[in-house]
Specification:
Largest sheet: 5 strands, antiparallel
Order of helices and strands: HEEHEEEEEH
Radius of gyration: 22 Å
Strand content: 25-35%
Oligomer: single chain
Shape: globular
């Protein structure tokens, strides 16, 4: 019986875990992290999908990734030319169940429980950016890439590794 209680406690702890919004490359279309698509030289679509963190964090992380791309490609600033934000309910109603029982000629007894493991809502921010060199243009949708990295970067942790050469 102690073993069953330990398993039950583990399941409850697992159900309480959240998918945090870590700053990392997304490993699949449904995973937490950033993804980028080059549209043409100097123009990208950058997406960040968050976990259970606040939506503001997702908006900051998509800006951070756009700034890193800007600097990586030898540019100084970027301008957001299009933006799409999406907040949806969790992807699934995944649950974990556990139980115990004694059945057979001595009668029956069962205990069961189920916990929702699907996490909180999914928040995704996608921006299309145009990269530029020189002085940052005026306007609320233009950002100095190094300034964004200096401001938001420390909250996100270490920068991602450079892309492999080959």
């Amino acid at each position: 019986m102690k073993r069953i209680l330990l398993i039950a406690a583990g399941c409850v702890a697992l159900a309480a875990c959240e998918t945090t919004t870590a700053y990392q490359a997304a490993t699949s279309p449904d995973s937490v992290g950033y993804a980028e698509q080059r549209i043409e030289p100097g123009r990208y679509r950058v997406t960040f999908q968050g976990g259970d963190g606040p939506p503001q964090q997702v908006h900051e992380y998509v800006l951070l990734r756009a700034a890193q791309i800007t600097v990586r490609d030898g540019y100084d600033w970027f301008r957001i030319t299009d933006r799409f934000d999406d907040a949806r309910p969790p992807r699934s109603g995944a649950t974990v169940s556990f139980g115990t029982g004694s059945f057979g000629r001595h009668g029956g007894f069962g205990v069961g429980s189920s916990y929702d493991l699907s996490g909180g809502p999914v928040v995704r921010s996608s921006i299309e950016v145009l990269l530029g060199r020189g002085a940052k243009p005026a306007g609320p949708d233009a950002y100095d890439a190094r300034g964004v990295i200096d401001t938001i970067g420390p909250r996100a942790g270490p920068p991602p590794p450079p892309p492999p050469h080959g």
